[in-house]
Each structure stands twice: as C-alpha cells, then as structure tokens.
Amino acid sequence: MIVVGGGLAGLRAVEALRGNGHEGALTLVSAEPHPPYDRPPLSKAVLAGETDDTTVEADWDLLRCDLLLGQRATGLRLDAPGRGGVVASTAGDLPFDGLVIATGAAPITLPGDGRQHVLRTIDQARELRSRLVDGARIVIVGAGWIGAEVATAAAKRGCAVTVVEAADAPLSTALGPEVGAFTAPWYAEAGVELRTGVKVAEVRDGGLLLAGGGRIDADEVVVGIGVRPDLSWLDGSGLLLERGVVTDGSFRALLDDGEPGSTRPDVVAVGDCAAWWSARYGRPLLVEHWDVALNAPDVAAAALLGGNAVYDVAPYFWSEQFGRMVQYAGNHATSERIVHRGDSSGRKWSVAWLTDDRLDAILTVDRPRDLVQAKRVIAAGTPVDAAAIADPDVPVRQAVRG
Ligand SMILES: Cc1cc2nc3c(=O)[nH]c(=O)nc-3n(C[C@H](O)[C@H](O)[C@H](O)COP(=O)(O)OP(=O)(O)OC[C@H]3O[C@@H](n4cnc5c(N)ncnc54)[C@H](O)[C@@H]3O)c2cc1C
User: Fold this and answer.
1) Which superfamily does CATH assign the domain made up of 2-105+229-304 to?
2) Which H or E run includes 354?
3) Which of 89, 211, 269, 389 shows the greatest Cβ crowding within 10 Å of its Cβ?
4) Which of UniProt's keywords are assigned here (predicted)?
5) DSSP helix/strand/coil, 139
6) Around 251, how many Cα atoms within 13 Å sit in the side-chain half-sphere?
C-alpha cells in the first residue's frame, strides 16, 4: 500500500490501514521534509509564538510504515482495474496494490514579482512569524478564514495591519455577504484596517498594485485567497479529475473512461484533494477542513481493503479569530433563509440556515453548546421550530419538533 501525501489525511490513512488489518508493506511519500503535522495551529498558536512544533504524535515503528519524506509523486500509471499500478516519484518508481491519494491543496498566489507570503506549511509559518514584528506594515489579501486569523496574530504582535478583500464583506465565499458582514466590526475592534471591494492587480516589491489604480505600501504581503489541489502529477492517469480527485461515497477514485460511476477499487483519494460523493447533499463535496482529514481516512482505508462503508457526515469547521471561537456545521449552499439567534452585533451569537423546517447549517460565535446540539440535529435531519431556533435562550435541541 502506498499513501501519497504526508498531511493529517495521509497519516490517518496509514493508521487506518493498519487498524483495519492491512499486514503487508506500507509506504508514505510526502513532499515535505517533516513528518505529518497539524496545520490549524499554524495561523494561530505558531504565528502567535506560543508553539513551534505541531507534529502529530505517531509511532512509526508500530505502524511499520516506510517514510519517504522530501519526496514527491510525479506520475501515476494504473494497471488493469484492481491490479494496482506504479507511482512515479522523485524516489523512483513505487509499485503498489493499493493507493491512497492524500496530497491536500496548495495556496493560490497573486501575479507580480514582489514577495508574497502564503501560509500552508510550518516553514512558511515560521518565516512569516519572523516578519510580524512591532510596527511592521502587514497587508493581507483576502478576508477569509486564514486572512482573519493572520490579521489577529499580526495585530497582537504590534503590526500595522491592513486587510484587503475583493468582496463587499469578510468571509463572503464561506458564509455569504450578509452573514460575513457581521464579522467586519471585529477588524476595527482589533485595530485592523479592513478595505472591502478592493481588487488587487499584482504584488510588487514594497506593496500591492490595485486593479483600479493606486497602491498600498507594505513591508510584507500575505496572500490568503484560497487553495487548490495540485493534481498535475495525476494528469494522464485515467482518473476523473475536476477541482479535486472525484470519488464515490467511499472515496474510491472515479475513472474518466466515459462509463458513468466506474471506479478503481484499488485507488482512494481523501482529505483536501478529494471531491467525494455525498448522498446527503446529492452532489460531490470538496471540503477543505481538518475534521474530514481526521475522520474520513478510516472509511477510505476500509474501502481500499474491500469494505463498503460510506462517509456522509455534515461538514464541520472552526476558526479562532479576534478573540472569538467561530464554528460552523452543515452546508447552506441551497438554504432558503437565515435565522438569527441572538444579536449579531453582540459578543455571542449564532446564525442558522433553514429550508422549510429543516436545519441546514449553523454558525456559532462563542456559543459552543449551540454548535454541538445543532450538529446532532443537522445529522438527524429532524424538523425544527424556526421561532425556537431564533430564541437564544431556548437550547437548540429543544427546538426539535415532536
Ligand atoms: C494555516 C492553516 C490553518 C487552518 N486552520 C483550520 C481550522 O482552524 N479549522 C479547520 O477545520 N481546518 C483548518 N485548516 C485546514 C486543514 O488544516 C486542512 O483541511 C487539512 O490540513 C487537510 O489535510 P490533508 O492531509 O488533506 O492535506 P495537507 O495537510 O495539505 O497535506 C498534504 C501533504 O501532501 C504533500 N504533497 C502534495 N503533493 C504531493 C506530491 N505530488 N507528492 C508527495 N507529497 C505531496 C504536501 O506537501 C502536504 O504535506 C487550516 C489550514 C491551514 C493551512
């Protein structure tokens, strides 16, 4: 068995393969020089200088796994379905019977020849932290999750922080402009200048050149405008590739052979690089969240060993920004309406998305109990009373009808 990608999903796949009874050879190939580590702390505790090591504990001897660190997969040749194939890599050709693709995603960058920081690896986090010094002018492009967390850390370290966002509100892509707008005052409160509706043309030495003319001067530019799986090593492999590797609900890779739904039983893809079929939502989901990287590999590894379990949980995500714990569960892509639960200009509040009397998703700000209870209601799909959901004094579980 070969696992390509040494992030959390890759490590969890290794553990799950052994846990599900795989006794044969097992190799993990990862482009980074470090053993698997957690990324969420990079934009939080690591930038804040509270920790420098986020390695995920693993007993590699017990796992009997060969670690090929600092090595990159460069190509994939598949034999007949079910017969494995060969991963071409910088460490040579690696034949396999079963393959886990867990190569995650890479940050999108902006045009221009000026220095731009992105934040995906521990080395990038350490490098950026060294630049977040008192008085430094830091311009962050993108008021998404990463942008908000970097702004939080930079402001705390005494930097003069400006966040530039093309949309009209922070977190617009993730939450929609109406809900995202409720987070805008948090920037000013932290002394961060938020400039929305501003498009960047390119990064130049000394700052940003704006699309409408004009520039913003900066000592450092941080770009947090999203990520995209790098699937170039899978070109020509015969796998169906869209924004991610397209899989069925058990993470088996689909083939691009014109036969709808035909899969490779010996190739799975999981984590940030996989677009998996969700029966719950009736469409593929590509979820770039830690929770999926942690839990989904169990199902993917079982599938590779012949199992048929399906992964169909509602997505979950958290962010720590401007002194708040922000959590989200569910999926509101097709929701009909928004219900406010508490005053969104206050300190603690939630927002729910509903369709008829079904709770589709919830966003909670320092209301962890709402999150936990709503997660269960969303998973069960039980109808709720919208008026009770709108009342922050009524526990979410008591809003369930019947
Ligand atoms: C700064 C930061 C903060 C985050 N904060 C949160 C948070 O608060 N909450 C949350 O839910 N999620 C958060 N996330 C997202 C979460 O960390 C990811 O969803 C998770 O790391 C995905 O794990 P993965 O194993 O699929 O991919 P990755 O962690 O990206 O790991 C993929 C690995 O594969 C390697 N690789 C890529 N291509 C190749 C190749 N061709 N050959 C060999 N190796 C290759 C990469 O170098 C990488 O080491 C954050 C992410 C970042 C970057």
Assistant:
1) FAD/NAD(P)-binding domain (3.50.50.60)
2) strand 349-355
3) 269
4) FAD, Flavoprotein, Oxidoreductase
5) strand
6) 35
The CATH architecture to which 107-223 belongs is: 3-Layer(bba) Sandwich (3.50)
Residue ID of nearest Cα to ligand 1 atom 53: 120
> What are the sequence ranges of the domains in the chain?
2-105+229-304, 107-223, 323-399
CA of residue 398 to ligand 1 center, whole Å = 37
- For 170-184, write each residue's pLDDT tens digit: 999 999 999 999 999
CA of 390 to the centre of ligand 1 (A): 36
Ligand 1 atom nearest 10 alpha carbon: 25
* First and final C-alpha spacing in the chain: 49
Residue pLDDT, tens place only, 216-226:
999 999 999 99
Q: Which residue has the tokens 């729910």?
A: 352
Q: Which residues have C-beta atoms less than 6 Å from ligand 1?
A: 4-10, 29-32, 39-40, 42-43, 72-73, 102-105, 119-120, 146, 230, 233, 271-272, 288-291, 293, 317-319
Report pLDDT for 148.
98
Q: Give the C-alpha distances (Å, rounded to integers) separating 253 from 244, 274, 358.
A: 10, 9, 32
